[in-house]
Every structure is written in structure tokens, then in C-alpha cells.
Amino acid sequence: MGTATAGKNSQTTWRNWAGNVSARPARVVTPASVGELQEAVRRAAGQGLRVKAVGTGHSFTAAAATDGVLVRPQALAGITSIDREAGTVTVAAGTVLKDLNVALAREGLSLTNMGDIMEQTVSGATSTGTHGTGRDSASIAAQIRGLELVTADGRLLTCSDKENPEVFAAARLGIGALGIVTSITFAVEPLFFLTAREEPMGFDRVTAEFDQHFAENEHFEFYWFPHTGNCNTKRNNRSQGPAAPPGPVSAWIEDELLSNGVFQAVNSLGRAVPATIPAIARVASRALSARTYTDIPYKVFTSPRRVRFVEMEYALPRERVVEALRELRAVVDRSGMRISFPVEVRTAPADDITLSTASGRDTAYIAVHMYRGTPYQAYFTAAERIFTALDGRPHWGKVHTRDAEYLARVYPRFAEFTALRDRLDPDRVFGNDYVRRVLGE
Fold this sequence. Notes:
The protein is built from 15 helices and 21 strands. The protein is of the alpha+beta class. A hairpin with a 4-residue loop joins β7 and β8.
């Protein structure tokens, strides 16, 4: 969660959730209306200041950092309209995903797919390519049917596949480089039930059977615990219900032991005494047992994440993911590195968004994490070397070292995006160091 704290000269310091990115903007604005936001953009541009909007700070990159004007859109929140006939809901950009999910459920509606946390704003999550796992259903951005965008000259553009379609193709996942999204229209469907089956499985078995698990399940993912041959698999499929949430013991094991309280203590020990990590990993991965539960989608897809970490994630051609994972395991085993966080593997179908990590290709994701405050460079560098050799595309909101030259090679429509940016923001009002690195001058 990004926090703004007052410093000397009333200048604020902004920090992201993981604490690995900070910025000192010249000023922070919290517009109460789209009109106020348009005026703030025009004023900043007139003063030669750059502008970035920031959500809850869940990106690990400096995508939202600025020394100019930092826009906090939290006052632009809430559902503005529901069209049951069209199957859409329109929300203001500062709406937090958790609030959206709860409000939709009250209306008997749901998104089709979502990521595993819901603390982000809808605009922050979609602009960086937040995704869950799915055989047929894709990222949150791929569920967008329309959006509104304030451009560098303060205009409000309405975009859909019918209106400004070339902007729509790009701005659903725009890394904040094309303008500030003020409103998003999502496709939604009647509320449904998902049955989740979680089951421990050996690394060799899950990698050998990966294609089968992917084909047989609407949503398949798994976690591998480094220093062990142990994985935990999760399959989510639609069911008739009724709701049968996890029991208290099972919920405690998942939420506290593996995700939060106990996991925090274990990681603190691992950070202080790295030699203990392999033994801890063996115990933690064996604490898992199979369980099945049924609930409405957001309660199955998402879970709380209180343990702070730093993350890198790459999107690979789906047919290369097992090869990459086996290589990562071999590198970790050889290296003497101590990795206390599980490695996460998910999938997404190809989509038609210009800079989506799944743009034009069926995709699988590998995410590597390190506990906040532990040195992650050696591990992430080794992982990145494996992923880039397979034309991997880094998640826009997670740690990576790629630049425009590399990205232009792995995104067939890269030039289409940069040409649009030249047209919408020739003076780079929405630029910053990160955007310059990944998109070029």
C-alpha cells in the first residue's frame, strides 16, 4: 500500500507496498472529480512538470514514481453504472478491487477471472497487467470493454473497440504512459460458484503432467518450494454450489502458516539465518494436505497477503514453461542460494492487447519472490537469464532489468504502442525513468 508521509518543506515521500521504490513528488493532488484531474494535468503540463497517477503502490517497479505531480485517484471510486443486458459494470478508476468484488457480489455479479490479491485499484491493476490463471479466461485488462482516459492536453478520451479503437487496444494496459485512466467498463457475468481443489504433488509429476492439468481445468496453478521436490497444486472449476468454504483449521494453515503470520516469522528466521531455509521449506511444504472447498469467485481466487516481499514474474510461451522451471530448479540446487518463498506457475490464453504479457500468444507465467529485506539480485538475475533466453516478457509491475530494445523484440506490436504514445503524449507529460527505460525516448 503506497503511503505518503510529510517531510521537510511540506514535500511528501511516497513509498510502494514492498518498500523498494520511493519518490519525492513536487506536489500530490487528490482530485475529487474528473474535471479537477483534467485541470491538474493541464496545470502540470503548463509548468513543465511530469504527472503520474498512483494506486495502492502494489507494483515493484517505479512505474508510478515521479518528481513532478503525483495524482492519488482514491476519491474517484465506486460503481457508476451497471448494464445487466450488456453484462457490463462501469467503475471509477480509484476503486479498489476488493470493494468492487464485494459490491458486485451484492448485485449478484462477478468478474470472470482475477489475480490472487485484491488490494490494488482497478486502474493500477489493469495498467500493469495483473492476472490470475486461466485456460480460457485472461487478465483483468482483457475483461475491459471500455475506458476513459485524460490525455496530456487535458482532454477526456472515451475508448472502446468502436470508439478510438487504436487507443483502446493499447490503453487497457498502458503502464500509465498514454494518459490517466479515470473510468473502466468491465465485462461481468452472473455470480457463480467455484470449487477449489488443492493437492500436494511432487515436482516431477506436476511438470510431467502440466499439459494435462492445464487442459482439464478452467484455472490451474501450482507452487514449487525451492530446495524440495514438493509442490502444491490448485484447480478451480465452476460448480453448482452450494458454498462450502474451508474449515477454520484448513483456512488457518493456508492463510497463516503459508501466507501470513507464521510465514512472516519463518521468513524472518530465514533472513537472519539463511542456512535454516532448506529445512524450513521441507517442513512447510509437507504441512500441506489436500482440501476441497466451494465459494463465490473472489473468495476462491484471492487471499490476504500480509508478508511483504519483492517479486519478479515473466510470461513465457506456454509450451516452454516446464523447461524453464526445470532449469530454474537445477540452477537453485547448484548455486548455494537460499530461497524461502515458493515459485508460482500460472497460465493465460492469448489476448489482443498491444503490450499485454499474453499479447498474441498462449502464455504461462513463472513468478519468483524473495522476502523483503533479503538480497534478491543473485536469484532474480539467474531466473531472468533463463526466462529471457526463451523470449520471456516481464510483468510491467514487477522487478526486471529489460529495456526498450529487448521489449521491442518480444512484443510484435511494440512500435504500434510507441507511435500512439508519440501522438497522445509528445512532450512526455506522463513519462518517468521507468517508462523511458521500457519504451525508449
